[in-house]
Write a structure and sequence with these properties.
Layout: H1 9-27, E1 31-35, H2 40-49, E2 58-64, H3 73-79, E3 87-91, H4 93-103, H5 110-132, E4 134-137, H6 142-147, H7 168-178, H8 182-185, H9 199-203, H10 207-219, H11 224-229, H12 235-244
Parallel strand pairs: 1-2, 1-4, 2-3
Helix pairs in contact: 1-7, 2-7, 4-5
Length: about 260
């Protein structure tokens, strides 16, 4: 990773904590609901939220499809002293299959089924937010946002986003500083929408390369041809991912 993506992790932590404190105070809300997938983004977001809110004001949900995929779920919450009554470890298989049956979606249509799963997760999180009068804490990073690697009204939906301004490479730096368990840091990034699915497998390129290309192109206005000259062989593929999903940032279209 090039040095231009290096962050001062402690300063960044304090900046995010300050942002979270100001937002919760401004909204007059003292609780947060967060979905924990077992991945680095949601865990980092959780660690940041627990710097701001007391344990009894954090509601955590692991919304898996078939069987739990976050073996450290209760370990992480025990360490943070989150009350057991504020923990939800729930399967979304039944509602996903119900919607799929109504819409006549075949089991082979993984993207459609994955989108339904992401949206049902958010239905559950926002319902819990209503129950507890809480803000839904999102877990999206800047790499996903720029690439459009999210489901509209699904994993993108939230009330507050602690890490959306940070590239995936920077999330890893912050995770190490926060003391996130190595088992979580070392996992292959995945949305957990179907078996053996990984982010980088979907992309056909790594986050490490994507972050550098996106940073140089979006923030420093380096041209694609120059990026290729610099050795970023997947430049065109990365920027095509960004281009094909730009509509997600533009809808709804209005008069």
């Amino acid at each position: 990773m090039n040095t231009f993506l290096q962050i001062d992790a402690e300063a960044e932590k304090q900046r995010i904590v300050s942002f979270l404190k100001k937002t919760f105070k401004a909204q007059g809300i003292e609780k947060a609901i967060i979905g924990l997938s077992g991945g680095i983004d949601s865990t980092v977001s959780f660690y940041l939220v627990k710097e701001v809110l007391s344990p009894e004001n954090i509601i955590a949900a692991h919304l898996y499809y078939d069987s739990p995929v976050f073996p450290l779920f209760h370990d992480v919450l025990d360490e943070a002293h989150i009350p057991h009554e504020d923990r939800y470890e729930l399967s979304i298989k039944q509602p996903v299959e119900a919607v799929a049956n109504v819409a006549n979606i075949a089991a082979t249509e993984k993207v459609r089924l994955g989108n339904i799963a992401a949206r049902i997760r958010m239905v559950v999180l926002f319902d819990l937010a209503k129950k507890y009068n809480a803000l839904v804490c999102g877990t999206e990073n800047k790499s996903e946002n720029l690439l459009g690697y999210f489901t509209r009204f699904g994993d993108q939906a939230s009330d507050i986003e602690p890490i959306e301004h940070l590239y995936k490479s920077q999330i890893y730096q912050l995770a190490k500083h926060l003391g996130i368990p190595q088992e979580i840091i070392k996992q292959n990034p995945t949305a957990g929408l179907w078996a053996n699915q990984t982010d980088e497998g979907d992309f056909g390129f790594t986050y490490e390369e994507a972050d550098q290309v996106l940073y140089l192109h979006v923030e420093k206005h380096v041209t694609p041809s120059e990026l290729i000259k610099q050795g970023f062989k997947n430049t065109e593929k990365i920027l095509q991912w960004k281009k094909k999903n730009e509509f997600k940032h533009q809808v709804p279209y209005v008069l």
